[in-house]
Write a structure and sequence with these properties.
The chain is an alpha/beta fold. Helix content is 40%, strand content 20%. Helix 8 packs parallel to helix 9, helix 10 runs antiparallel to helix 11 and helix 11 packs across helix 12. The longest helix has 19 residues. The model has no long low-confidence stretch (mean pLDDT 96). Bound molecules: nicotinamide-adenine-dinucleotide, 3-isopropylmalic acid (IPM) and magnesium ion (MG). The site of nicotinamide-adenine-dinucleotide has 21 residues, from helix 4.
Amino acid sequence: MIKQIAVLPGDGIGPEVTEEAVRLLEEVGKQFGHTFQFQFADIGGCALDKTGTPLPEETLQICRESDAILLGAVGGPKWDHGPGEKRPEAGLLKLRKALQLYANLRPVIVFPALVNASTLKPEVLEGVNLMIIRELTGGLYFGQPRGRKETDEGLAVVDTLYYTEAEIERVLRKAFEIARLRKKHLVSVDKANVLDSSRLWRETADRIGKEYPDVKLEHMLVDNAAMQLIRRPGQFDTVVTENMFGDILSDEAAMLSGSLGMLPSASLSDSGPGLYEPVHGSAPDIAGQNLANPLATFLSVAMMLKYSFNLEQEAQAIEQAIHKVLEDGYRTRDLAQEGERYLTTTEMGEKVRAYLKQEVPS
Ligand SMILES: NC(=O)c1ccc[n+]([C@@H]2O[C@H](COP(=O)([O-])OP(=O)(O)OC[C@H]3O[C@@H](n4cnc5c(N)ncnc54)[C@H](O)[C@@H]3O)[C@@H](O)[C@H]2O)c1
Ligand SMILES: CC(C)[C@H](C(=O)O)[C@@H](O)C(=O)O
Ligand SMILES: [Mg+2]
């Protein structure tokens, strides 16, 4: 199989983790007989510095023409003071919107070897395997009007939470389809006791749910969901929610897996390339030190192989390699216990590639 992959390393630890992910893809190609062709392009702060815009037209074009997109992370303190459209994050949001990547899949898996890496009790974490589906192209992130203005009462500011019924419906359908392939239990998270947008979300979920009688639909208010995720995460199988709630709940859920450095994501549309990126950001505090955990990006590569290329066996080989590396006690710094030895980003990359070779039947 020959596939074109757009690689957008971005800022901070983005280039460090994507470099290892590209090496991993090359190894998968070698082992399984595929050719992955990479086209590198700028996004975020590095693009702003070079071109004055966080998503240059050329980058968008490269993305549109590829079979899948791999992204590291964008942002950092250097660019934190610019106006909204001159921030690195605006480039990522524009890319998601331009490609209509409305369904953001964020699986949270607790690897048995990492049960002790979390601050939660092992018995609470055992067997946790949930999928958060976050709406990614609507809500507060994109609603208009937004911005600041001077009023008689001084400075005022507005952000708008806007959703059409069609936007809500398409992501809910995706969530029901995914839940159907999992344990057929879907928790829809909203704030229907306060927000009109959530009330429409809940009504739509109930309506669509009738078409999926085999899937058990439950509604949960977001504040309770945030608490339940920590109290008893095992009660969740598939979770669907709007953009902002999903952003926050997924970072929270990352701590079940031991580190934000373990959470991958896939952002999908109805047609066109999918975008694969770790859930974490550019981690300015550790950038440039070879300390980042690349496993979230590796797991995102596995999602790319599965969802965009239908290469199930190859994806499983990556997941198994990671599983075994962790079982054998290898850790990056974020996962290591106090005083425990840990691997650098590049060493972890090497280790996973070496284990991958053992996963491939000769
Ligand atoms: N998708 C993205 O590109 C994305 C996502 C989140 C945040 N950001 C941006 O990143 C910048 C920093 O944001 P932040 O500090 O709030 O969040 P962050 O996710 O970058 O970092 C939060 C904490 O987690 C740690 N961490 C994150 N990824 C790690 C990894 N792979 N290995 C080890 N430790 C890791 C960091 O060191 C930091 O202590 C901001 O500009 C933000 O907007 C970008
Ligand atoms: C960087 C930022 C715009 C982004 C988001 O909020 O979607 C990030 O936090 C994420 O989770 O991918
Ligand atoms: Mg986030």
